[in-house]
Amino acid sequence: ETGVTQSPTHLIKTRGQQVTLRCSSQSGHNTVSWYQQALGQGPQFIFQYYREEENGRGNFPPRFSGLQFPNYSSELNVNALELDDSALYLCASRPGGQIYGYTFGSGTRLTVV
Amino acid sequence: KQEVTQIPAALSVPEGENLVLNCSFTDSAIYNLQWFRQDPGKGLTSLLLIQSSQREQTSGRLNASLDKSSGRSTLYIAASQPGDSATYLCAVVRGGAQKLVFGQGTRLTINP
Question: Among all residues of chain A, which has the CA nearest to that of B43?
Fold first, then answer.
């Protein structure tokens, strides 16, 4: 097992730009979800993918989108960045089935200026 | 809508004390509950996972309990150490996409 790896670790973008964050999950982890964590808050669910299809979405606008690939990697894309998008973005994965807990990556710190 | 609350928001204790962190949730129809630790600016490290059919789980100095009927979980830390200083988050999994719903965390400081 190699854990969950996220890249980049830090990123600075300008308002209005687009960003892609990447996540590489452990082999066999066919469920991946993304969370946004503002400073001092608990993580908020953005969306989840199971076997490359989105199967759940939180209260985030359509400019937040994602992809999951057959090699257990995934992407979070954010278009038309706003200042409030500045946050820690966390990727989590697990094998299929509710009996398994989630494993998190170290996150990507996004700053929008 | 599932809501998760953690009390207290912050806690500071001297080294060696036993302590309890609390987590409450509004909807008892959960699949499981997971406790995490988060160091400043870092990702989440899973500490304990309790299935809905279980009452408690133990790992080393940590013990987590679950009472679904009352919507409560506690994380007990024995013989606290300065290295235990971190933010502790609880999260429940329920329904549909089985997403994690988090509390806001308890920021724990262990003083040497």
Answer: A106
